[in-house]
Amino acid sequence: MWSYEIGKIKGIPIKIHITFLLVLPLFVFVFSVDNRFGFGDFPSPYNYIWGLVTAILLFVSVLLHELGHSLVAMRYGSRILGITLFIFGGVSQIEEISKKPSEEAKMAFVGPLVSFVIGTTLLALYMGLSVFMDGGIIRVLRVLGFINILLGAFNLIPAFPMDGGRILRAYFATKYPYTEATRKAAFIGKIFAFIMGLVGVFVSIWLVLIAFFIYIGASEEESATRMKSVLEGVKVRELMSENIVYALPDMRVSELLELMFHTRYAGYPVVSRIPENGLITVDDVVGIVTFRDLQRVPFTQREIVFVKDVMNPIVETIDVDNDVSEALKKLQGSTSGRLLVVENDRVVGIISRTDIVRALQILSVREET
User: Fold this and answer.
1) Among 51, 107, 181, 229, which is most exposed with the fewest C-beta within 10 angstroms?
2) What DSSP line would sit under 172-217, residue for residue?
3) Stretch 203-221: mean pLDDT, rounded?
């Protein structure tokens, strides 16, 4: 949400978040008025033109940094959902990061390495060309060279969700179980975030914002890893609801609301025909309808609006023998919040985010006990 795809590189979707569009003019302005790391001493409008060029090339550098992560992750078998540029830079959406310490360390380190290579190359060009020429291009080489080296060094700070935090976790993972390694690395990341935020109060509001981002990232990484650990080995068949109540496309919204009142479910598969012997195949299902869909229908229209008018035609499925962690991944991008559970092309159950959250709560308490 709020991200827009602008193209693909090596099959990886490249997206721009709306916050990127908000921060880009700010970077252009800063580069345009700053004398040391910008073009403040250039006459107008050239200072703004070179400021725009530098801002765009800076985010291209960030994209290459993230692309380095993604390509190494793909080499180790991970699926890349996309790379998104946003207010603080970029992020690679990697579906499953390798738990092998050596592979995670390499994947994490290659990003800063790309930044260092870009930075040193640009600075070398700057030193070589500045002897013979001067102007905007030379200043761009110098500014981007320094910033890329700073970017590489900053990302090596041992704090989640930055690359240094992942390298630190990879180190801890050689000595402790993966969940414990994540907990230790996240704790150190939170300490760095606290110190950075404290310094930022007296130095710069940007440091405070970055510290907040790091703290939240460390907490989310810790929670996600613990969640995967708790759900490890749990199969979809153990959590799914086997009693499937279906809806028909030509049911009125008022009729489905009455059915919801009696069955107490908040989501139903919509089938094209009344199933024989209660057996539903994947091909029979034409959509999913939820209580939220019905809520959007005004009270005065519930007798004239049909289920087919409000249902979600996107039907997502998962195999009955898949791990619940796989279901959770699918549900993260699901619009209905539900997956049909299938076995040999037959629908045998339904699983929702609520089912998994409830199971997580119970399993977490059981694990603590």
Assistant:
1) 229
2) HHTTS-HHHHHHHHHHHHHHHHHHHHHHHHHH-HHHHHHHHHHHHH
3) 81
